[in-house]
Write a structure and sequence with these properties.
about 280 residues; Rossmann fold; UDP-galactose 4-epimerase, domain 1; 2 domains; 6-stranded parallel beta sheet; two-stranded parallel ribbon; about 45% helix; about 10% strand
């Protein structure tokens, strides 16, 4: 593969987890040419330029957008936020990638798919779309690598636990007693994570299990799309059932770096978990 060929990163400005932005940053720091695809021209797009990335604005569902984004790229990282258009976007990107002779298509998928098949599924509409998308990519003939993480700390643990930690020193999540192993973390139950939060923040944080139903209702009240809400509720149910108890050393094996610990992650985002003097 040519060192001069840019690596395409889709979803580079994503809000939830910001994985695409992190991928862009890490590749740029390694001196790689990165073409970052975003949906909207805004301050997040400018931040990507400041990292050294070439930014293209487009829609994963739009054929012309994908030709402009992929042309000249031999490698691409494909990711998209939870959406009911996920399957169509994946196939659109794959068709254009094959047309342009992409030599490596890295697909950000989900761990749960390893337990899904043509006869086994989950209640999440997003899981079903992810599974079908993987099948389509496998059939495409493209050289595909599927990456199947559990959950990212930037998701449940930052977006959905920070309000209750800030307000009442509690991690209020509907995970029951199930163990979980988010990326950059240990494989432990939620009481362990509460201890790590406490060490990082210098105050006592406890874990409070809450029922999935009321938590789901709260997400709807916040205005989240029902497709996303149903997906998150299914993930909560799977956590309670111990389906995220899937610790591995893949991050270290693939990257050569020790994953960021929960304690270090929380310490890095301490301001998000701590009420300001005005809020206290």
């Amino acid at each position: 593969m040519s060192d001069q060929s840019p690596i395409l990163v889709t979803g580079a400005a994503g809000r939830v987890g910001a994985v695409g932005r992190t991928v862009t940053e890490l590749l740029s720091k390694q001196g790689k040419k990165v073409r970052a695809m975003v949906r909207t021209e805004d301050e997040r797009a400018q931040a990507l330029r400041d990292m050294g990335a070439e930014v293209v604005v487009g829609d994963l569902l739009d054929l012309d957008s994908m030709h402009k984004a992929i042309a000249g790229c031999e490698t691409m990282y494909f990711a998209m936020s939870v959406s009911d258009a996920y399957l169509a976007a994946t196939i659109n990107a794959a068709a254009v990638a094959k047309h342009h002779g992409v030599k490596a298509f890295v697909n950000m998928s989900q761990m749960t798919l390893s337990q899904m098949s043509v006869t086994e599924t989950t209640a999440s509409p997003q899981h079903k779309l992810h599974w079908l998308a993987e099948q389509a990519l496998n059939w495409s003939g493209l050289p595909v690598v599927h990456v199947r993480p559990t959950v990212f700390l930037e998701g449940f643990f930052l977006l959905f636990s920070s309000p209750s930690v800030k307000k009442s020193d509690q991690i209020r999540l509907p995970f029951g007693d199930g163990k979980t192993s988010p990326i950059a973390a240990e494989d432990e139950n939620m009481d362990f994570y509460a201890q790590e939060y406490s060490k990082a923040l210098g105050r006592t944080i406890t874990y409070q299990d809450i029922p999935v139903g009321p938590w789901r209702d709260g997400l709807i009240e916040r205005g989240l799309p029902i497709h996303l809400v149903n997906h998150l509720a299914t993930m909560a149910d799977l956590h309670r059932a111990g389906r995220y108890d899937r610790m591995s050393d893949d991050v270290l094996t693939l990257s050569g770096q020790v994953p960021l610990s929960v304690q270090d992650f929380v310490r890095k985002h301490a301001a998000t978990f701590t009420a300001s003097a005005k809020e206290a």
